């Protein structure tokens, strides 16, 4: 009899031990799955925040580029009265020079006259009775352009006298890859 009870308890203990090992394995797998779900959730939030910060950085770079463009000698008015004004006559002449197409590190660059009656593209024939001056449009998919309000000035003549006429405009720039080497 002694041998029968010893083998019975031994067999029962083995089964209980195996059940405990299985329970522990299932609990460990459940814990690993739980932490994997938490990790996926965490990384998805981090990736979304990273995408948002990349877009903000591109917007900031485009805004800084617009400010630098307004202050560049090719755009700026050469009078002391308005240091941050854009000389619309200079920009119109700049549009006709194809050498400047690759000079600025943008995919799209245009200037729009605010409060314009119609939206006609500026050419030599209809200037200054035009509203939009597109300097650079390298491709159709250039992203969302960033704009900044500027003072647009040009020379007008009244008889023999010339004067500077200014109005409100907005300069737009966009680029997927803005290369700062030119402006550093």
Structural topology:
Blueprint: H1 2-71, E1 85-87, H2 88-95, E2 108-113, E3 132-137, E4 146-158, E5 161-174
Parallel strand pairs: 1-4
Antiparallel strand pairs: 2-3, 2-5, 4-5
- Biggest β-sheet: strands ordered side by side in the sheet: 1-4-5-2-3
Query: What is the end-to-end distance?
Result: 95 Å
Radius of gyration: 34 Å
Number of domains: 1
Number of helical elements: 2
Share of helix, binned: 40-55%
Runs with pLDDT <50, length 5+? 179-184
Helix/strand order: HEHEEEE
Number of strands: 5
The average pLDDT is 79
Outline, from the CA principal axes? rod-shaped
Describe the sheet with the most strands.
Answer: 5 strands, mixed
- SS-based structural class? alpha+beta
What is the percentage of strand-forming residues?
15-25%
Name some characteristics of this structure.
alpha+beta, rod-shaped
Task: Describe the structure in your own words.
This protein has 184 residues and is of the alpha+beta class. The protein has one domain (1-184). It contains two helices and five strands. A five-stranded mixed β-sheet has the order 1-4-5-2-3. The longest helix has 70 residues, at 2-71. The chain is rod-shaped.
């Amino acid at each position: 009899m002694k041998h029968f009870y010893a083998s019975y308890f031994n067999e029962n203990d083995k089964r209980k031990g195996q059940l405990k090992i299985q329970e522990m394995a299932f609990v460990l797998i459940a814990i690993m799955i739980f932490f994997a779900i938490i990790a996926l959730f965490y990384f998805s939030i981090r990736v979304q925040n990273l995408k948002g910060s990349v877009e903000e950085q591109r917007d900031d770079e485009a805004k800084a580029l617009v400010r630098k463009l307004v202050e560049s000698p090719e755009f700026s008015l050469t009078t002391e009265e308005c240091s941050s004004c854009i000389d619309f006559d200079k920009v119109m002449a700049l549009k006709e020079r194809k050498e400047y197409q690759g000079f600025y590190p943008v995919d799209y660059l245009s200037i729009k006259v605010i409060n314009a009656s119609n939206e006609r593209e500026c050419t030599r024939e209809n200037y200054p009775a035009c509203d939009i001056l597109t300097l650079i449009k390298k491709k159709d998919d250039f992203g969302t352009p960033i704009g900044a309000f500027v003072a647009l000035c040009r020379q007008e003549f009244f008889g023999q006298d010339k004067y500077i006429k200014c109005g409100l405009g907005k300069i737009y720039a966009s680029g997927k890859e803005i290369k700062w080497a030119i402006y550093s």
